[in-house]
Design brief:
5 strands; globular; 5-stranded mixed sheet; binds cobalt (II) ion; 202 residues; Beta-carbonic Anhydrase, Chain A
Length: 202
């Protein structure tokens, strides 16, 4: 199996340089992505492929259920580097319908460490329990929770001090909430974009 991956890697690298001889040389020189993607680790949600971007064009952070927890040093390190050093213009918080992490957060089963990781989703469910309880269909209720989770994570990112400081010094930066559909490959913009301090407070 691994030999197959190595062969695929070789073929891929060759294809890249066939169409653009300087492709990898340029990337060695610098990376200057305009976007930070914060998405789910799910293998069916490959960041670059979904938005059809090449290496170098998308800075990516993925974890189970696309969370942006304000105490997570991994996510915070990525966020600060993207905002302060790369100076990305857009942060895309991308959830997906049918997220196993979101489902696992609220199914009542015990799994171990991941139960702690997924705790923020149970808080989202609690905060929106009236809306969610009114949805009869189980799948539709979970899909709505996926959306509400994205909206909460957008607020986490937008309220972070790195982002707040960037806005205070006039940096052009927007935080967006998207949901990806495994069923048709399309993203939906949840229209919760935050681009300055006033929008965050509003
Ligand atoms: Co997921």
């Amino acid at each position: 199996m691994l030999e197959d991956l190595k062969a695929r890697n070789l073929a891929w690298a060759r294809r890249k340089t066939e169409t653009d001889a300087g492709f990898f040389k340029r990337l060695v020189g610098q990376q200057a992505p305009q976007y930070l993607w914060i998405g789910c680790a799910d293998s069916r949600v490959p960041a670059n492929e979904i938005v059809d971007l090449d290496p170098g064009e998308l800075f990516v952070h993925r974890n189970v259920a696309n969370l942006a927890p304000p105490q997570d040093a991994n996510y915070l390190s990525v966020l600060q580097f993207a905002v302060d050093v790369l100076k990305v213009r857009h942060i895309l918080l991308v959830g997906h319908y049918g997220c196993g992490g979101v489902a696992a957060a609220v199914d009542g089963k015990r799994r171990g460490l991941v139960d702690h990781w997924l705790h923020p989703i149970r808080e989202v469910r609690h905060d929106h329990r009236h809306e969610l309880d009114a949805i009869v269909d189980d799948r539709a209720r979970l899909d709505r929770l996926c959306e509400l989770n994205v909206i909460r994570q957008v607020r986490n990112v937008a309220s972070d001090v790195f982002v707040q400081d960037a806005w205070a010094r006039g940096q052009d930066l927007s935080v967006h909430g998207w949901v990806y559909s495994l069923a048709n490959g399309l993203v939906t913009d949840l229209d919760v974009t935050v681009s300055n301090v006033a929008e965050m407070q509003g």
